[in-house]
Automatic annotation (TrEMBL):
F-box domain: residues covered: 1-48
PROSITE patterns attached to this UniProt entry: FBOX
Organism per entry: Takifugu rubripes (Japanese pufferfish)
Keywords, sorted A to Z: Repeat
Designated gene of the protein: fbxo10
Protein name: F-box protein 10
A single GO BP: ubiquitin-dependent protein catabolic process
Family annotation (InterPro entries): Beta_helix (IPR039448), F-box-like_dom_sf (IPR036047), F-box_dom (IPR001810), NosD_dom (IPR007742), PbH1 (IPR006626), Pectin_lyas_fold (IPR012334), Pectin_lyase_fold/virulence (IPR011050), SCF-Subunits/Alg-Epimerases (IPR051550)
Length: 955
């Protein structure tokens, strides 16, 4: 019969009455018939799939409202899975014709129930032969003692699920068995309803109510479309391989699935079939479980707003745009923080010394100004266009860093053989497409247990997954949400791979890693938690890479109590506290992350925290970029810290960080602020508000035993006893570039401090020595360097050029040695109220004012300085000293008026005398710049605390 003789619609109506075997035969007639049969996917194939007593909806239990891609393919998978228990015969490979001579497992059907040939389950199992089918008619079957199954048999409940209930305890002592469409309830003498220790058992479409399934290796288990409710659980001990597919676990009193012990070396016949079956199942994703967050979470890009789901490459926003967006434009025009210290305009005293007592007039504009070229100083490469014609890294008006893209899961596997091996492993218990809800626990692994969880949903539990005692977990594409404690908990040397999961809305941390656990965590979405996103503590380790971590109420990543993870290539954003917090002797390597739009500090380090913070992008925060709090340490190198509403970097008391080669630009307040007043929040706020709930379920941990020795922790780090600020760019910040109000020593070497709205460097308080050496302080809106009364400071080898006020305004004690102070709008060097100062071998040329001015009763020595005339026709001398001053010694100072040829700074060339390291491009500078000095001052750091930034918080 030709298909074309009737309309296709009519054929579909006719074929809808055919049973499954006849559909298969029609599909083999010809290509036209096959295409016609396949077109029945949403009609007849759907009806057959949903009508199978062995299975339920293909997306049951987590997403029954979603249809599968193909109902026919889903039915095919059901048919393959239901035959696994029969495939334990020997394989005949000598000849293909022997397959037809193989003895078939002819089944006899036994009917059990009232009015049938057999009335009890026990009597049926006594008479049943190998592979017979025992059909249980509706009713309740209760046995008063344990039943032993000694031959392979199939138990099938007749009617709808729930009409056949078994109150029995079955022990399997045969190679294989299958149970289908049954309800298991525990008998009066045991909670275990089924157990096996060496055979294979298959459950299809069964319910367990208040009962326990127990499988011991080398026994195996396959459960499909089963419900475990009212405290039911599956307990797997030493299993080589078991498969729980599309099951519903609810109301558990302990863990719903417990995997304990290492897989035994012996394997039974079903292992290879279960492995093949697990690999043929289609990959499954929970709803909304993508590798990127929803599109309503936006970032700032050159083309306006762009969804974070797109890999962000060129991030760009002008400073004015960021100020307008955050509504802080007016604040940053003249930021006032403490002690009425305004950084938005020049002081009255600065204006008094300007030429003619005021600004330029028409006559002064005609005076000739001889500019000494100073553009070829040691940091000039940072102010020149790069080789790819992109803006200069040190003088770009807008921040244009290139943020790292998140890697895909496949890219992570390609570069990590260990993760690749874990992703391919199928050892232990495989849990796929299951729903865990409304109970105490989901999956618990202990004592070298192994499990693979894929495409499951964990909702409304105390915890979703707990992996302890050297166990190994592989979690792929699961959803973990609304847990009352942490979502995933790893400790006691647990390990594994956690990838492409959606972890959100949990009461504690999304991931809790402690006590030597060392998992690989890649490409997850960890968000909307009621506490932190990821917590690593108690010597916990782990590798966090390419994750989206956002919108958590506390720190996105919280590291404490000697936690030491690798946090690399993540996007951590829009948190309601800090992006990353390192506290209580926490460590870690934090590299190449994008940390943005967090309410508090992008990175917060304090109370012994000692991480390596390198090459991160910390931007658009509503507070400070990096906060180094009381007793904070760490290597902070090569980071881009820009467009934060507070300061770029905030350092508090007793802190010993190393800031090397960072770009701290376009922040609304100070670029780098060093403070020393006591941090009351750090002392009084050490309770619940400052950290996670560390004593989960009443367990008390002896943290002291976990802490490594101080020598071991710092053996690979350059030892310092003074906070170090070296080779950074502090540019275009809204107030002072470097603001120091500290009672502790500070070394500031080889930095570019350029185009900040306030003074380049302000030392407001400094009872210990603040040393500024080999810096370039250029084009700042107010003065170059300001040192206030009672401060100790040393300025050596700096280039201070073209600032809007005085080059150096010095009122403290110390030294000003071998600096180039050229082209500043006010005086070159102004000294006032100083108790003890040495001004030696400096080269000074002012733009308008005096070269060097001494005001008031200054005590000190000024000799061997070289002063160049700035303008012709000026009425002021280059070197001015108050007539009543008798405590200042002037000796061998040279004052030069203009002659031809033009002046040039040589022997040495313009300071600072530093150069770009060999082999590095300008885009990699200023990280690790060479410094032309060999000795550095070190001092003992006294203990002290600090209250710090108005925006600073521990989380």
């Amino acid at each position: 019969m030709e298909v074309g003789n009737l309309p296709v619609e009519l054929w579909r109506i006719i074929l809808a009455y055919l049973p499954l075997p006849d559909l298969g035969r029609c599909c083999q007639v010809c290509r036209a018939w096959r295409e016609l049969i396949l077109s029945l996917d949403n009609t007849r194939w759907r009806q057959l799939c949903l009508g199978c007593p062995e299975s339920r909806h293909p997306n049951w239990p987590s997403q029954p409202h979603l249809e599968p891609p193909s109902w026919r393919e889903a039915l095919k998978q059901h048919a393959i899975a239901t035959r696994t228990w029969t495939q334990n015969g020997p394989e005949l490979q000598s000849s293909a014709c022997l397959l037809f001579l193989r003895r078939r497992k002819d089944r006899k059907v036994w009917h059990v129930g009232p009015g049938c040939e057999l009335e009890t389950l026990r009597s049926a199992l006594v008479v049943a032969g190998p592979y017979d089918r025992v059909v249980l008619h509706p009713g309740v079957y209760e046995e008063q003692a344990e039943i032993v199954m000694k031959v392979p048999v199939e138990l099938l409940g007749l009617g709808q699920l729930g009409e056949v209930a078994l109150l029995v305890c079955l022990e399997q002592q045969c190679p294989t068995a299958r149970l289908c469409n049954l309800v298991f309830m525990p008998p009066w003498f045991s909670t275990v309803v089924y157990k096996t220790s060496w055979g294979h058992v298959q459950f299809d479409n069964c319910n367990f109510e208040g009962a326990q399934l127990q499988v011991r290796g080398p026994g195996t288990c396959q459960a499909r479309f089963c419900s475990f409710s009212q405290g039911s659980s599956a307990h797997l001990l030493g299993v080589v391989l078991s498969l729980l597919d599309s099951c519903d676990f609810s109301g558990s009193d302990t863990a719903s699935v417990t995997v304990e012990g290492p897989p035994v070396s012996e394997r039974n016949w079903a292992c290879k079939h279960l492995t093949s079956l697990a690999r043929t199942f289609p990959s499954y994703r929970t709803s909304g479980n993508n590798s990127s967050p929803p599109t309503d979470l936006l970032v700032h890009t050159s083309g306006g707003h762009q969804p974070l789901g797109v890999n962000v490459k060129n991030e760009h926003m002008s400073m004015e745009g960021w100020l307008h967006k955050t509504g802080v434009g007016a604040v940053c025009q003249a930021t006032v923080i403490e002690d009425c210290w305004s950084e938005g305009e020049c002081s009255d005293r600065e204006e008094q010394i300007l030429e003619g007592g005021g600004g330029y007039d028409a006559k002064n504009q005609l005076n000739q100004y001889y500019r000494i070229p100073c553009d070829n100083h040691g940091l000039s490469h940072l102010l020149k266009p790069q080789k790819d014609r992109s803006p200069p890294v040190g003088s770009s008006l807008d921040p244009t860093p290139v943020a790292p893209e998140l890697l895909t899961f496949q890219q992570e596997l390609d570069r990590d053989p260990e993760a690749q091996m874990l992703a391919a492993s199928t050892l232990g218990c495989i849990v796929k497409r299951c729903l865990f809800r409304e109970g105490k626990g989901g999956v618990h692994l202990s004592n070298y247990g192994r499990a693979r969880l894929e495409g499951n949903v964990f909702r409304g539990l105390n915890y979703a997954v707990r992996c302890i005692q050297n166990s190994t977990i592989v979690m792929l594409r699961n959803e973990v949400c609304e847990c009352r404690a942490s979502g995933v908990f790893l400790r006691l040397a647990a390990q594994g791979l956690i990838a492409e999961n959606n972890i959100h809305g949990n009461g504690e941390a999304g991931l809790d890693i402690r006590k030597g656990a060392n998992p690989i965590i890649v490409c997850n979405r960890i968000h909307s938690g009621l506490r932190s996103g990821v917590v690593v503590l108690g010597n916990g380790k782990g590798s966090l890479r390419s994750n989206w971590i956002y919108n958590n109420k506390e720190a996105g990543v919280y590291i404490l109590f000697s936690g030491n993870p690798v946090v690399s290539g993540n996007h951590i954003f829009q948190g309601q506290a800090a992006g990353i917090a390192v506290n209580e002797n926490g460590r870690g390597v934090i590299t190449n992350n994008v940390i943005r739009e967090n309410q508090w500090g992008g990175v917060d380090i304090r109370r012994g925290g000692d991480p390596i913070l390198k090459n991160n992008f910390i931007c658009y925060g509503y507070s400070d970029g990096v906060v180094v709090g009381e007793r904070g340490r760490g290597l902070i190198e090569g980071n881009h810290v820009y467009c934060n509403k507070g300061c770029g970097v905030w350092i508090m008391s007793s802190s010993l960080p190393q800031l090397l080669g960072n770009y701290i630009t376009h922040n609304c307040m100070y670029g780098l602020a060093v403070f020393c007043s006591r941090d009351r929040r750090g002392v009084e706020g050490e309770g619940r508000d400052g950290q996670e709930n560390l004593n989960e379920e009443g367990e008390l941990f002896a943290w002291e035993s976990d802490l490594d020795s101080e020598d071991e922790r710092h053996s690979a780090r350059r030892s310092i006893s003074v906070a170090l600020v070296e080779s950074n760019c502090l540019n275009f910040n809204g107030a002072v570039g470097l603001y120091v109000k500290s009672s502790e020593p500070l070394n500031v070497f080889a930095n570019l401090i350029n185009s900040n709205r306030g003074t380049g460097v302000t030392v407001l308080q400094s009872s210990q020595l603040t040393r500024l050496a080999n810096n370039c302080i250029l084009n700042n809106g107010c003065g170059g360097v300001t040192v206030e009364k009672e401060c100790r400071a040393e300025l050596r080898g700096n280039g201070i050029y073209k600032n809007g006020g005085h080059g150096v305004s010095f009122s403290g004690s110390g030294q000003i040695v071998e600096n180039d102070v050229v082209g500043n709008r006010g005086c070159g060097i102004q000294i006032s109220n100083s108790t003890d100062v040495k001004v030696l071998r400096n080269r000074v040329q002012p733009a308008r004012g005096c070269g060097m001015t001494v005001l008031g009763p200054v005590k000190g020595v000024i000799h061997d300085n070289l002063l160049f005339q700035g303008q012709t026709g000026t009425r002021r001398t280059l070197l001015q000293v108050d007539p009543g001053n008798d405590g200042c010694v002037l000796r061998n100072n040279s004052i030069l008026t203009f002659t031809s040829p033009a002046w040039v700074l040589e022997n040495p060339p313009p300071r600072p005398l530093v150069s770009s390291p060999c082999g590095l491009s300008s885009s990699q500078c200023p990280s690790r710049l060479g410094i032309s000095m060999t000795t550095r001052i070190s001092a003992t750091v006294e203990s002290g605390c600090h209250s710090g930034s108005m925006f600073c918080s521990i989380l």
